[in-house]
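Dear Dr. H.,

I hope your travels went smoothly. While you were away I took the liberty of generating a structure for the chain from your last submission, since the lab meeting agenda had it listed for discussion. I wanted you to have the full record in hand beforehand rather than looking at slides cold. The sequence, exactly as received, is reproduced here:
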Amino acid sequence: QGRYEDRSAFLGIIDTVMRMEEHLHRGKSLKGLQYDTSYDQICTTMALISPRSYALIRAEFGGHGLPACSEQHRAKEGRFKAGIVDENFASARRWADSFSWTGPFILAADDTKVTAALRSYQDGD
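The corresponding predicted structure, in token form, is as follows:
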């Protein structure tokens, strides 16, 4: 009837549960199961805010394991280039796009030798 058309995450949960049950009914594993994009975005946001809450939601409604998924994407994308270069920002954007992520994210590296010319500055008040 179209009453739930504006509830994409809710419809995504229903779709995910139906796909899971169909796979299990056929004796298939849930590995590689594709999840609805809206539901996947909600899951990703929840996992970032509260991994414990996401674990409860995932146990009930399904969803991918974020660490495993991140490792797969990291292996595909490779490492960032040394220094602050445009290619690193483009690579981070591609990574976010691969998750259909439209929210904020932070690009950071533990590299104390990024560029010799960059130095921290503290205002002495």
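Two observations you may find useful: The chain has five helices and no strands. The mean pLDDT is 75.

With kind regards,
E. W.
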